[in-house]
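not sure who needs this but someone in the group chat was asking about AMP-binding protein from Streptomyces endocoffeicus so here u go. i didnt clean anything up, its just raw.
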Amino acid sequence: MEQWVWPPRYDETHRPPDGQTHWFPRRETMPAERRDELIAARIREVMAYAWDNAPFYRRKWDEAGIHPSSVRTLADFEKVPVVRKEELRADQAANEPFGSYLCVSPDEVKHINGTSGTTGRPTAFGIGERDWRSVANAHARVMWAMGIRPSDTVLIASPLSLYWGSWGAYTGAERLGARVFPFGAGTPGQTARTVRWMRQMGVTVFYGTPSYALHLAEVAADEGVDPASLGLRAMFFSGEPGASIPSTRSRIVEAFGAEVYDSGSMAEVAPWMNLAAAADEPGVLCWQDLVYTEVCDPAGHRRLPYGAEGTPVYTTLERTSQPMIRLLSGDLTRWEAPTAERGRTYPFLPRGIYGRIDDMFTIRGENIQPSAIDDVVMAVPGYGGEHRVVISRETAMDTLAVQVEYDPGQPESSLPGWAERISNRLRTVLGVGATVVPVRQHTFDRTEFKARRVIDNRELLRRMADEPLPGREP
């Protein structure tokens, strides 16, 4: 296959000729079974490399009785134990700063990204120059599949911080030869400036989160600018579900009149655009020759048949500094078998990544993903732009309330019926009743990054129950 070597090496001058839809035609269209044979051979190379250079993996596999030479097929690979994010954090705490799964000398690390640490100890990503270039080439290749070209101006509208997503999109657009506009987001008042700069610079491609795109559309309208007049022809997203959720996607398309592409896997996985759309449709392809993706049973971590729902497990095939080998995502998706009809012979996730196992909550025995509520609420005529999901417990019964902003053009006398229609639809989709509470538009703050819409008051009640009252001994 084109440039299929280990360690990865790419021709930095390569760019497809005008009119060619594939960056690497052979790699992207070859029979999936033949690609799987080559991937199995590459996995052995990556495992042997990690065995020799990463005490973390050697220790883990030793304990499981596995050696890289014993992995002859992808079925054998399913026996390799998964890696959990908490293991990576613990290993970095014991082996600062990059952990004992760093396979190169610390002196070779030239870029540092990482997690915010809001859910525990921050995880540092030590990225060597070879990996930085591999990610750039991989992202350029995927962005080419989205129709992005050197003539485009690409706005990077997510924070240029520790967040790896922004930098991956930046370096990919740069490698592709496009004009890159790293405007970022997050500073109060910056979104209004974004609108002005987009018009001034003739931005044609937008990268960010779906939530921020919707916020940008609202701000543009408040500034007297029709979002569709900004001239965007393509928008690609990562960071949260949305670009493959029909109601969110349709709101973005309606606002901007642009093609919409979903993408993204995990912060720990680079290139994170290993899951990415190559057509203006919901869903993403698994670019298996960049990062081998298995959709697995969340309990046993064995690969599930096509058509099943499970959690992705990722193995990087081009990383040399901090390779991820069977990294458990904790996300939820459903996959379909490869088909040449989509122009590339990769497995397909028709709804992209639509939730996380740990984001799922249970109400009266029903497992509910927040994205399912988003899909119902955002599709309702008269939706005002934001909503919140509030879970409470009254006596022994869990209750679900959805506070929904309404469009100010709606007569207040119509709101009870409007709320009832949403409630009925939620009951049909979720299997449990939900109280819908209409609230005025702009009741809720808009996000400059990722939306957080679920408030679980049951956890607050549990904490209160565990804490002693003033003056009472615990």
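also Residues 460-474 have pLDDT under 50 and may be disordered. if thats useful
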